[in-house]
Design goal:
Length: about 300
């Protein structure tokens, strides 16, 4: 099952690709470069090349080098893609610590406590972004996951997946096949409206359209999430749902309409709302009737 998080409304502000993952770790824990990546994957290292970009090859003794502040390149030949890795000390000034606490507040207690421990000490930030985008976004996803997991595990850090607004402990990436591991479902309440906004986040990273559904009864949000998950699986295995297309079977049929109600929150990200239909085939503002039948 896809991850399902409940949270209150927060505007969605993302970089254009979504493929940005950060690792926060105690500054005294500096993993060796060759423990992070080796071409043969020895000792649990990811099967990749890691190269310091701020120094010439003659200045680098890889066998002794650690993940010190600077810029690095990570190349996984099998994935046909490359990552940029930028490492440096992190200052918790200007509200950065409060922002980290707020964003981690939606996560399980163990994750929140780990974030607090890192905030309390000197912290180093490893920022992982795309250097080269290959034809298969899933390769990029798997590659960023491998790099973040390895650095975090070695340095006792925490992973922040910017593209889906998640904090993760080492080894806590969802064990799901294919793209589903990199997509999160959110249920958002509040904002002065008697409604719950359920939506995917992360499908855009695979060049797919995000989906959303609205219900008045928050108790129906898990069912709405399962429905989006089912449609999402279909999208990944087949093709995108198109505007005007009706999905589902029998009493669980919803129509894909343009996602205009939260358009300001999505920015450039494409989204479709799955709306219930009236007897006359007119899209309704809420889908409670459809999901109530599934209880």
């Amino acid at each position: 099952m896809w991850p399902f998080r409940k949270r209150r409304y927060v505007p969605i502000t993302l970089d254009r690709t979504g493929w940005r993952v950060q690792v926060y770790f105690p500054s005294e824990r500096v993993p060796a470069l060759l423990s992070i990546a080796q071409a043969n994957g020895a000792g649990g290292a990811i099967p990749a090349f890691i190269v310091p970009l701020d120094k010439s090859k003659d200045q680098v003794q890889l066998k002794e080098a650690g993940l010190e502040p600077g810029r690095y390149g990570i190349v996984v030949p099998e994935k046909n893609a490359a990552l940029n890795l930028s490492v440096g000390p992190l200052s918790w000034k200007d509200g950065a610590a409060d922002e980290a606490r707020r964003s981690a507040g939606r996560e399980p207690e163990a994750v929140r406590l780990h974030v607090e421990r890192i905030i309390a000490g000197q912290c180093t930030l490893a920022d992982i972004t795309i250097a080269e985008i290959g034809p298969d976004p899933l390769r990029i996803a798997d590659m960023t996951q491998m790099a973040a997991e390895r650095i975090s595990a070695l340095a006792g850090g925490m992973i922040r997946d910017i593209g889906v607004r998640r904090w993760r402990a080492p080894g806590n990436w969802p064990a799901l096949p294919g793209p589903a591991a990199h997509v999160t479902l959110f249920a958002i309440t509040g904002e002065g409206k008697h409604e719950t906004w359920v939506h995917t986040l992360g499908m855009y990273r695979f060049r797919k359209t995000e989906m959303e559904v609205f219900v008045r009864d928050a108790r129906l949000a898990p069912l709405a999430g399962e429905y989006l998950m089912t449609v999402g699986d279909y999208v990944f295995q087949n093709q995108d749902v198109k505007e005007g297309e009706v999905v589902g079977q029998k009493n669980a049929r919803l129509m894909a309409v343009a996602g205009k109600r939260r358009e300001a929150n999505w920015g450039e990200i494409q989204v479709l709302e799955l709306a219930a239909l009236s007897p006359d085939g007119i899209p309704l503002p809420y889908a409670d009737e459809v999901f109530a039948k599934m209880v």
